[in-house]
Each structure stands twice: as structure tokens, then as C-alpha cells.
UniProtKB/TrEMBL annotation:
EC supergroup of this enzyme: transferase
NCBIfam families per record: PRK09257.1
A Pfam family of this chain: Aminotran_1_2
InterPro entries per the UniProt record, alphabetical: Aminotransferase_I/II_large, Asp_trans, NHTrfase_class1_PyrdxlP-BS, PyrdxlP-dep_Trfase, PyrdxlP-dep_Trfase_major, PyrdxlP-dep_Trfase_small
EC number of the protein: 2.6.1.-
GO cellular component: cytosol
Reported cofactor(s): pyridoxal 5'-phosphate
GO biological process: L-phenylalanine biosynthetic process from chorismate via phenylpyruvate
Subunit structure and binding partners: Homodimer.
Family from the record: Belongs to the class-I pyridoxal-phosphate-dependent aminotransferase family.
Keywords on record: Aminotransferase, Pyridoxal phosphate, Transferase
Record protein name field: Aminotransferase
Length: 398
């Protein structure tokens, strides 16, 4: 008799499980459109030049590997805060933002969830329908009841804004609302500036707690353009949570570099919030790792490296848009004329509108791996596999 006899075998993670199936697939023409990773024209994970340069500089002047503070590197925190709130923003000068370095965007969400659970344990968390799979799991695991608000409307190939606002309006005060700041995962549909204003008004009226998740800054319209949502929330005067990630924008997935900022009404509140965030971190992993944050800090604070990064990020963004147009064109050439909406979606993902059966057929008949819900990572296409993917989609649609 072992204690572990009672341990049930958990199902594989829906996304990472797809990758396992992909790796095991022997067909050479297979394509992994499951996981949200940007691949270059050769189907390879890029190492950005700015990161390579920063890495060389760090290697030329090696530092001892001491512990960082619980809340991370001060230089990193300053660099992130300037990036997401703007250099010298009033809210920073007023001391109203508590920022901690986190283990990627996921770590930021979890530290934020743990703090929220401590200060408002009976709150419900609302996520978009659909949302990134891990939102529900993460907030559930943190002890919350998780419900969803209406978001994607298949008939519109867009957002059911009336449904979304109605669901927010009927939420209890204190409800946590997780909002994708840009490049909504999995649908690729973002709110317009006017719709953001409506959401902000509703959040204010109903006294909800917004939690902005910004994992793809720079992949929509640009770094500043995508970050404008944060500025809107600051302008509104609301208190809110903000998680950010450099996994995608720096292609630093495995380094786990992110941040959590909590914007409060006063510097005094921010100090108290920071003290509690530090306890959440200290009792989980004590303090964050050094290397990824050092790379990001080096790039963001050096004029030439920063310009290089902005260009490389723009190139990734533009290439994804080109791939979207390329896929739509290739589908049209094969007689599939009703999927033009893919070109207008934002970020790495496309909600293709394909059914579960069609997605399974893509996997079993063609070795093309997307989620059952029809999500495909457009950022994993290239000129070498695009025609094959278009052939397969046309075949499963016929
Ligand atoms: N939020 C969303 C919406 C995401 O898509 C992702 C990454 N897939 C994350 C958070 C987490 O990012 P990270 O890999 O930095 O933990």
C-alpha cells in the first residue's frame, strides 16, 4: 500500500499534449500549429540578434550568480515599468504601482491570483469564452470559482461585445475580470478602443477588479499601440492587475521572464501590496532567476540594442501578417473563399472556424496539429508548409 495508490493519472496538458503527439508523429510533412511559438522561415525558433548581442556582452563581463531580491532585479523592474507604463509616467512617479519580476506571464498570473485569493477569497474570476486554457486552470488551482463572460461569436467572426458587457454588468462587485490586453489567445480578435472604453465604464460601475494579461505586446500593431490599453486603464483611474511576458516578444520562452504590476489608488496601498506580493513569492520560489531578466534589461536600456529589438519584433509582427494573407490567398486559390477573416486577426493565433472533426482530420490524415477548438498558430507557418496546410484545409472542408 502506497500513498501514491490514490494518485490519479492526470490528463495531458491540452496544448503540450498536442506537441507530444506531434513529436511522436513519423510523417516528415507534419506541421505543429498547436503551441504558441513564433518560428522563422526555416521553421526554427529564432534567437533574436539583440539577445545574442546582449548575451555576448554579459559573457564578456561575467558576474557572480547571487540571489536577486524577492521582487527581482531593480533595473529590470524599472525597464519593464518604463516599457508598459511609459517613461516617467505619473502613476510611477506617484509610487502607485507595485511591480515584481516573475517567472514569465504564467508566474505573474499565479502570483497575482495568490494575492487576490488572500485579499478577496470569495471573489469569482471571469475569463473570456474562450480563453487561454491555462487561465481557468490557474485561477481554479489558486482557489477561485472561475466562470466566463461572452466574447467570441462564431457567426460574427468577431466579438459579442453586447454579450460581454451584459455578463460584466451582472457580475458581483469584486469579481476579478481577466482581460487579454492584445492579441487575444485563442481567437485573434481584440476589442476596439471604443469597446475598451465601454468595458472600463462597466468595470467601474460594477466595481470589478480588472486583471490585464499582456503576453503579446508588439505582436498586434506595435509596442506602443498594443500598450495603449494599459494607458487607457491608467487614465480611467481604476485599480488593476497587469501581467506581462517577454517569452514571445524576445523569443525568450525558456528563460521565464515576466512581470506583475498592481496599480493602486495610493503609494501607501502600493507599498502594502508589494509587501504581500513578496510573501507570495518568498513562500513559492523565494526569488526569480537572473539571466533572462539581465538580457531584457540590457536590451531595453541600450539605445542600439533597443532599436534592434524593436525592428526584430516589427519583423516578426509583419511576417505573421504576411503569412495570414498568404494563407488566405492559398485557400482562395483552392476554392476556399470564406476564410478571409484570418487576415484580419491579430497575434500568433487564428481561430479558424474549423470544426473538431475537421481539426481531427487535419491531425490524423495530414499530421497538421491544431487544437480541437480550431485554433492554429499562424506564427508556425512558413512558405515551405503553407501550401501543404492550405491543401489539407481545403480537403477537410470539402
Ligand atoms: N497569457 C496568455 C494569454 C498566453 O497566451 C500565454 C502564453 N501562451 C501566457 C499568458 C504565458 O506566458 P509565459 O509563457 O510567459 O508564461
Amino acid at each position: 500500500m502506497s500513498l501514491f495508490d490514490r494518485v490519479e493519472l492526470a490528463p495531458a496538458d491540452p496544448i503540450l499534449g498536442l506537441t507530444e503527439a506531434f513529436v511522436a508523429d513519423p510523417r516528415p510533412e507534419k506541421v505543429n500549429l498547436g503551441v504558441g511559438v513564433y518560428l522563422d522561415e526555416n521553421g526554427k525558433l529564432p534567437l533574436l540578434d539583440c539577445v545574442r548581442d546582449a548575451e555576448s556582452r554579459l559573457a564578456a563581463d561575467p558576474k557572480p550568480k547571487g540571489y536577486l531580491g524577492i521582487d527581482g532585479s531593480p533595473a529590470y523592474r524599472d525597464a519593464v515599468r518604463s516599457l508598459v507604463f511609459g517613461d516617467g509616467a505619473d502613476v510611477l512617479a506617484d509610487g502607485r504601482v507595485a511591480t515584481v519580476q516573475t517567472l514569465g506571464g504564467t508566474g505573474a498570473l499565479k502570483v497575482g491570483a495568490d494575492l487576490l485569493r488572500q485579499i478577496n477569497p470569495s471573489a469569482t474570476v471571469l475569463i473570456s469564452n474562450p480563453s487561454w486554457e491555462n487561465h481557468r486552470a490557474l485561477f481554479t488551482r489558486a482557489g477561485f470559482r472561475v466562470d466566463s463572460y461572452r466574447y467570441y461569436e462564431p457567426a460574427l467572426h468577431g466579438i459579442d461585445i453586447d454579450g460581454m458587457l451584459a455578463d460584466l454588468r451582472s457580475a458581483d462587485a469584486g469579481t476579478v475580470v481577466v482581460l487579454h490586453a492584445c492579441c487575444h489567445n485563442p481567437t485573434g480578435y481584440d476589442l476596439t478602443p471604443e469597446q475598451w472604453d465601454q468595458v472600463i465604464e462597466t468595470v467601474r460601475d460594477r466595481e470589478l477588479m480588472p486583471f490585464l494579461d499582456m503576453a503579446y505586446q508588439g505582436f498586434g500593431f506595435g509596442i506602443e499601440e498594443d500598450g495603449a490599453v494599459v494607458a487607457r486603464f491608467i487614465e480611467s483611474g481604476l485599480e488593476f492587475f497587469l501581467s506581462t511576458s517577454f517569452s514571445k516578444s524576445f523569443s525568450l520562452y525558456g528563460e521565464r521572464v515576466g512581470s506583475l504590476s498592481v496599480v493602486s489608488e495610493s503609494a501607501d496601498a502600493a507599498r502594502r501590496v508589494l509587501s504581500q506580493l513578496k510573501i507570495c513569492i518568498r513562500t513559492n520560489y523565494s526569488n526569480p532567476p537572473t539571466h533572462g531578466a539581465a538580457l531584457v534589461t540590457a536590451v531595453l536600456t541600450d539605445g542600439a540594442l533597443r532599436r534592434g529589438w524593436e525592428q526584430e519584433l516589427a519583423a516578426m509582427r509583419d511576417r505573421i501578417k504576411q503569412l495570414r494573407r498568404g494563407l488566405v490567398g492559398a485557400l482562395e486559390a483552392r476554392g476556399v473563399t470564406d476564410m478571409g477573416f484570418i487576415a484580419g486577426q491579430l497575434g500568433m493565433f487564428s481561430y479558424s472556424g474549423l470544426t473538431k472533426q475537421q481539426m481531427i482530420a487535419l491531425r490524423t490524415d495530414y499530421g497538421i496539429y491544431g487544437t480541437d477548438a480550431g485554433r492554429m498558430c499562424v506564427a508556425a507557418l512558413n512558405t515551405g508548409n503553407l501550401g501543404y496546410v492550405a491543401d489539407a484545409i481545403a480537403a477537410v472542408r470539402s
